[in-house]
Amino acid sequence: MPVFNMKILHFDSDYISNNKSIKNFIEEIDSIFRFKSYSIIIIFSNFNLSNISIKNIYKFLLNKNDIYIYTINNLEKYYINVIEKFIPVIYQSIVIAQIKIILNKVLDIANIIYSLEEINKSLFDKIRQNINHIDVLLIHYILLHKKIHNEYLNILSNKIYKKDLIIDFIRKTSKKKIYIIPGISEFDYNNNNNILSLQDKANYKLSKLICKYIDISSINFYKKYYVNFIKISNDNNDIININHNIHNSIINNVFIDINYLSLCNDLNKYRIPFQIHNKFFKQIIKINGNIESNENFDSLFIERIVSFIKFKINGSYQEIKKYVYDIDEKYNINIYKSLYDENYYYIQSNPKNSRLIFNFLKKLNIKYISDISIIKNTEFLFVVKNFNKLNKNDFIAFCKKMKIKINDIIQNTIDNNVSILLPNNIDYNTIDKIKRFLHRRIDNYYTKKIAIYIVGIGLIGSKLIDLLKLNKNNLYSRDNIQLNLVGITNSKNMIISNNNCLIDNFEQKSDIISLLNDTKLNINTFIESMISNKEKFSNSIFIDCTSDANIIHNYKHILDNKISIVTPNKNGNSSLYSIYKQIHETVHKLNNKASFLYETTVGAGLPIISTLKALIKVNDPIIKIEAVLSGTISYIINILSNKIKFSEAVKIAHEKGYSEPNPKDDLTGLDVARKILILAREIGMEIELSDIDLQPLITEECIKSSGLENFFHCLKKMDDFYHKKYTQAINNNLKLRYIAVLEKNKVYVKLTYVNNDHPFFNLSGSDNIILFKTQTYNNNPIIIRGPGAGADVTSLGILSDILQISNK
Description:
28 helices, alpha/beta
């Protein structure tokens, strides 16, 4: 890597907005360079007016409006004004001629685009690149004629910079030099209002690229607005180390513009010092690069006592836009639109200019502007990310609940960022509450913080905890999903964490048990704690890993509080239809504010319910559902032979852990009946469990037997019956299958034979299989097959449901 003693000066695309700012720009470069021994790289994209013109040209071309010609002519007048102001008369005609040649090319390209049916993006890119070229060329000439020698790397197609190109460019020049590198011009064709933030973001990438391949001594960022720089401490001249995390940063008033986060983190990594200069308030922030913490910069807010001029527009904003440009030319302003009343606008200014701007507005024709007032010493809370993503109504409801008065919510007309205007007598405790609320909401939107509450840590619950631990880091780095295991219960005890890190507190199940020993289980207390914590997270998910028939009576209350439920517990969907209906109507009314997912109630991790829902959604009528839905029964039937009798097969399944602790629960067929009932209700059938024609695999005597020993003794009485069934199947090239069928509004579950043409004939082991015959998939039905039981596959299915909710 080549080593140079260099400083980067990074001028954002909003920095130069008028002749005064050009003058300041020249003075800044001169003062830095004149008495220094190092070289300087200047990264600069466009004048502010050029960016506005690019946006307008695009809009006019898009709408087939030939006013784009006047926009280009006005831009030429602006350039000539700049040339006449800063370049000696003797050289002006040469520079103006060059500018006109390039602008004629811009006009020719615009005329071609205008004649086409739709905008050709590659042609419009050439317009942007040529205007970018003019702006940087002007800076180059202005500096030269102010006796500030510089080299200009002229690249018209500057979307991609190669490291060798930049390094070679610098190598060929003398050691102490100014190098001007055009910034990367970007344009969002879906939202052309976003040109400034896109362009700045692209230029940050360029700065990072240079830092990576050239040894840079420091970077200086030049911003127009207060809201775009880092506030480190009350004493802005301090050079301090940052070594605290995000949550402490809020308390210590460390707030960082989100646009800088990626770059700041890289500068931290490379230990490169950087400063951020603010044109509007004349402040400089310094960070020395000696940052020991691994924490990233990610605070989101900046506060400042500022002045605003509020006024009402009698008509449209377009009618007063010219006057706003005139004000900006004189006073460097920001203009905002009220989100409460669209007719009101705000001008943010330096307090010393408030009265001058106020008088200027008062002189305008009364038909355009009325109700003008100065709002002094307003607390100005800036929301860096898109406030609309946070739901304005949620914020207003929060303020109402906390009895916090806010003056207005305003949106910047250039970059669409949103700010909150607070009364000037507001106390800092209240401001802190607002910052915390907004910080949680913004942070939760972009980093999806998911609270997980697991009720029941038997085989499935324990496996799920292992999966969460295994996938936690990968999900965060890949999908920006942060899984927080916050609450756990078993049948006796519970724990709810305040620090959101239970998942890191244990290695095995015995560790979980020891954590749970302190607090006796009270499910109502557990649920209320879950509800009170939900504001801290993007989503909270209640995971019912029990088979408890009573816990489902809490589902409605949980859902009403906008907490999602994921469960393998079949009782919610297979108990009384009135309970089923209540739960699903609650979910429907919530309109996606909370989910109820139960994929694992049928077929464990197999996508059975999701497939059925998809068929219903596309209105493909279900003709028939046929399924083997018990892995236990499948296994028992599949190992029957001349040597293995029915009672022995059941005992083997029990010893291998394939059956319930009491195999009677499987062999009644009730579990299969509940599963086909869930599918029947899913397609709209209003039926009860008692409506299903269920044929158990065991006799009433075996069902009523008490204790495992008596149960297995009773099973032996059925060995001859099943041996005959097995022999009959073998002799006729058939297979025994315990099948659930839904057809023509009838549902039944029974043991039957299938021939070798049937899809279920070759089913082996403990697999489940399900067949969906629909109007579309009639001759060739949809078939899903795989393991339909077991803690491993069920916990995977639960995790899949968790991620489905997390990604909403």
